[in-house]
Amino acid sequence: MKKALFIIAGIIIVLEIVYGFYTDQQTGGFFGLELNIWAHRVILAVLAFFIFRGYSRIK
Description:
Elements: H1 2-23, E1 27-30, E2 33-36, H2 37-57
Antiparallel strand pairs: 1-2
Helix pairs in contact: 1-2
């Protein structure tokens, strides 16, 4: 069950990053803060990296 949650969260974050490129957004929201879209994408990419890394470490 825990592996499924990791993979679902990772896919949602990757889709959010792709959607940000597709819609050509200028700002992104992160916990209620308006950020530059590139800072938002970097934060999401780092988060996705750690989620997939955690997924790979679960047995």
